[in-house]
Specification:
mainly alpha; 15 helices; 2 strands
């Protein structure tokens, strides 16, 4: 009975306290949840990671000045009829204002309707696929050989990396001398074997073969070093277990080496494709796009429009540049989607 009485008193006291607090607060109102503000998340991120933002700010600023502004300027020029005759210029003490006008998408319509663009695009794709495929195959073969232990391995590695250390224009000029029809070393060697001189840079077919060979020679060191690093990250226990199970060299290569190199391979193939697609120095310094225009790729054609054509067509060159960027972005998106379908995170 005493227990029941104490419980009743406690309940009554609790009820009185609730009424008193309710009376003090006034009539109850439904509580409204404040909508989240977008600025709060950004402010919180800046406050939490301020050091990281401070460190990358100079890089972002430099990239914005070096890449962002020229890109925006190029897109704008591609929508005008700017050329050498109507841009702003200074002659002596006289300054002439720009008179070019906005033309919208007329430049893109003209370029895409020009057979020259599609000819350059086809050869650029062939050149890129050939260079990347051959470079990857040779780089993988050399990396596999250099991953084994043998005497003088360090010397071979240094010798194979040497083309990467030499400046590109020096390498191209050296190859240009080798390909010389009259005094080149290659034709001298062929002449010693009773073979007539080969027009390496004077025949369209041989010129295409020559530029591919030079670009492959320049690209092998990067491919070899990247794949060699990937090979060294594969655990040796996998090969030992496979060998104990009776797997042959080809089976070990197919089921251990290639899957182990997938992540590295996808990255280097993407980078090599972008670099080769835009490989201006090899084409321009070795053949100048010739003979005729047989080795012209998209970037050399854009250069020709801006600096060689008369009058220099700045709007046309910018249009070619924007189209090149669009093609590479489409390729990167398709490449990324195909990797995600295969289970790769990129």
């Amino acid at each position: 009975m005493a227990a029941d009485t104490s419980r009743s008193v406690a309940k009554a006291a609790g009820a009185d306290a609730g009424e008193t607090s309710g009376a003090a607060r006034g009539p109850s109102r439904p509580t409204a949840t404040a909508p989240p503000r977008a600025g709060r998340g950004l402010a919180r991120a800046l406050a939490t990671h301020w050091y990281a933002w401070t460190m990358i700010a100079p890089v972002v600023l430099v990239l914005g000045v070096i890449i962002g502004w020229p890109l925006v300027r190029g897109v704008y020029l591609s929508l005008t009829d700017a050329n050498e005759r109507n841009v702003s210029r200074t002659i002596g003490v006289r300054h002439i204002e720009a008179t070019y006008a906005f033309v919208g998408l007329d430049n893109y319509t003209a370029v895409l309707g020009d057979p020259v663009f599609w000819q350059r695009l086809v050869w650029t794709v062939v050149w890129t696929v050939a260079c990347v495929s051959i470079t990857f195959a040779l780089g993988l073969g050399l990396a596999t050989m250099l991953n084994r232990r043998f005497r003088g391995r360090a010397a071979y590695r240094m010798a194979l990396i040497l083309p990467w250390a030499v400046p590109g224009f020096v390498s191209v000029f050296a190859w240009r001398f080798l390909f010389n029809r009259d005094n080149g070393i290659l034709n001298k060697v062929l002449d010693g074997g009773g073979i007539s001189a080969v027009p390496w840079l004077d025949d369209p077919t041989w010129a295409k073969f020559s530029v591919i060979a030079v670009n492959v020679w320049l690209g092998i060191p990067f491919m070899m070093v990247a794949l060699l690093g990937g090979l060294q990250s594969i655990p040796g226990e996998l090969y030992e277990a496979a060998e104990m199970d009776g797997a042959g060299p080809w089976q070990r290569f197919r089921h251990i080496t290639l899957p182990g190199l997938r992540a590295v391979s996808m990255t280097v193939v993407l980078l090599s494709t972008i670099w080769t697609f835009n490989m201006f120095p090899v084409i321009f310094l070795l053949t100048r796009g010739g003979p005729g225009d047989s080795t012209e790729i998209l970037v050399t054609q854009a250069f020709r429009e801006a600096f060689i054509a008369s009058p220099r067509d700045f709007a046309g060159s910018a249009t070619w540049g924007v189209l090149i960027l669009a093609l590479l972005m489409i390729f990167a998106l398709v490449y990324r989607r195909s990797l995600r379908k295969q289970g790769e995170v990129w």
